[in-house]
Amino acid sequence: MTQSPRIAIDAMGGDVGPEVMVAGAALSRAAFPEIRFTFFGDEARIRSELSKHKALARNVEIIHSDEVISGEAKPSQALRRSKDSSMGLAIAAVKAGEADAALSGGNTGALMAIAKVALRTMEGIDRPALSALMPTLGDNDVVMLDLGANTECDAENLVQFAVMGAAYARVVLDIERPRTALLNIGSEDEKGTGMLKDAAARLRAADTLPLDFTGFIEADRLSRGHVDVVATDGFSGNIAIKAVEGTARFVADLIRQAFTSSLRSKAGFMLSRPAAKLLKNTLDPNFHNGGVFLGLNGLVVKSHGGADANGVRNAIGVAAKMAIADITRKIASDLENFPKQAIEDAAE
Amino acid sequence: MTQSPRIAIDAMGGDVGPEVMVAGAALSRAAFPEIRFTFFGDEARIRSELSKHKALARNVEIIHSDEVISGEAKPSQALRRSKDSSMGLAIAAVKAGEADAALSGGNTGALMAIAKVALRTMEGIDRPALSALMPTLGDNDVVMLDLGANTECDAENLVQFAVMGAAYARVVLDIERPRTALLNIGSEDEKGTGMLKDAAARLRAADTLPLDFTGFIEADRLSRGHVDVVATDGFSGNIAIKAVEGTARFVADLIRQAFTSSLRSKAGFMLSRPAAKLLKNTLDPNFHNGGVFLGLNGLVVKSHGGADANGVRNAIGVAAKMAIADITRKIASDLENFPKQAIEDAAE
């Protein structure tokens, strides 16, 4: 366990690049004073941004790279260009043990492909999954995965996602037996695709798994706080999380319109400013930025491409917390100690 | 075109039954004074509810039925029991030309199966789709389909959903060439499943279709008002719409908490009551209740199982408006006149 996590940052990924990545790193120092950074990318641009954040000069390295993986690159193209790219170099630093986590705001498919080839999946896991924490009305956030790393999945992938998600919840949310559900279009056993019924049967049969399988959950119940982990294929998970984000933003826009539509409403809005601020924090996607790739022998965190400096700060916070908690080793030992036999039994 | 639409109501469907179905019908008289109802179900219970709504006594018929299709019934079971059920009888009334629309708050899969067998699909359409209007920040609502009638689809189904959705938008939103998109996990051409790429290629090639195909749309852009129609398979569509509904409710709950967390916030909330009311109307799922099955030779509207009397009123409003607009004939003639050749060309 480290108290001074070393974060390898792909400074070129995302819509903006070094400007927000460096600014986000500077902001993250408040919560993690011992954090150390290595920035990968255009040295001149990174240096110019660093000059605006004097406090960051300590414990910072720059590794120059000319190659940037574009947002449009296919995973196969990204893999070919990985070696000298800012994204590939950041992941290579994790592989070499020179960094505790890599962080990128770049192309998700490319990041996934490069990370999978460089770090390989944990024993017992066929495919890594992109996971994130979503806010709920309950006491805890909910862990959701996969959010888009695997467009098409089979029942065995879903079972593995459930087990990894539960291990993640155990570490992050400190819940011994996380309540774990599969995302479906109905809660009854006979609803959904064959893949989902198959995965549910395996999870139901595997009663030695260190999780409580609660069956299917519908997308309108995600935020209720009744489960700790929601496993789903990457297509449905991506649709669900983007629908949640888009609606939260839509509603926030409506609120702004509604509460400023008349003088009286405007006055009410001003009076409620502390409440409005709380609302903004909960609803701002930057506040929840930072998806973790689970199932790899190394920690890789995805920041939203459109994140601002606060968003990058929060994604760095996720990477730092996971590094301090030594999540990769904990998930690996979880997978090794308890459920392997149960997963195999359930898979039969 | 009728100005006195006749609505066949399955009084037994939904979580509550006759109480909300009759109360919703009574409320709908305000907007549609000439509307006529036939209620199918337990005559004694319906009569007892009607006695509470004297104004409704005019233009109301009751057809007794003992059989109710349960929420758990599989489509195959529902079909076997359809003949004497309140749901089956309501749809039979549409088939017989005795009603202009059937409305039920019951089991969606059962409703779809019974409607498909009784009314059959329009020529050129393989599968009906459940569609609904969703609010946006733009000038118009967006038509979205399929929302759960078809768990698994192929590219041809998606093309047909796009064509039907565009015809629906033409009638309901009065847009000559609706901007039509496919729901996907990225907006770039290479994103998503083979099915989606195939459907996109067909729609792109079919430039004589009376719609503007705008490519892929991600779930966080649904409410932006940039497209008029979003076509998707029933699994993804159901995940998306439920994630939208659940988040809207989640945020509404947060607002309530936030604006009543302190005296000052509470005062602000009270002052902004007109704005809060506007917000509630836009966010209340009852306000948007009423999904239309498109692609059938007859009009069938699904009300949410948990809808209250206001929700049922709104679903009846959708049924009445569609009946007055003669949507079924208009979509059929749209399909017949323009795009058939184009669809076939595109499908090749």
From TrEMBL, chains A, B:
Sequence similarity: Belongs to the PlsX family.
Protein name per Swiss-Prot or TrEMBL: Phosphate acyltransferase
Protein's organism: Parasphingopyxis marina
One of the protein's GO biological processes: fatty acid biosynthetic process
NCBIfam families: plsX (TIGR00182)
Molecular function via GO: phosphate:acyl-[acyl carrier protein] acyltransferase activity
A Gene Ontology cellular-component term: cytoplasm
Subunit structure of this chain's protein: Homodimer. Probably interacts with PlsY.
EC annotation from Swiss-Prot or TrEMBL: 2.3.1.274
Keyword Protein transport: no
Biological pathway: Lipid metabolism; phospholipid metabolism
Origin: domain of life: Bacteria
Keyword terms: Acyltransferase, Cytoplasm, Lipid biosynthesis, Lipid metabolism, Phospholipid biosynthesis, Phospholipid metabolism, Transferase
InterPro entries cross-referenced by the UniProt entry: FA_synthesis (IPR003664), Phospholipid_synth_PlsX-like (IPR012281)
Enzyme class: transferase
Membrane-spanning residues: none
Subcellular location: Cytoplasm
One Pfam match: FA_synthesis
Reactions mediated catalytically: a fatty acyl-[ACP] + phosphate = an acyl phosphate + holo-[ACP]
SUPFAM superfamilies, A to Z: Isocitrate/Isopropylmalate dehydrogenase-like
Purpose of the protein: Catalyzes the reversible formation of acyl-phosphate (acyl-PO(4)) from acyl-[acyl-carrier-protein] (acyl-ACP). This enzyme utilizes acyl-ACP as fatty acyl donor, but not acyl-CoA.
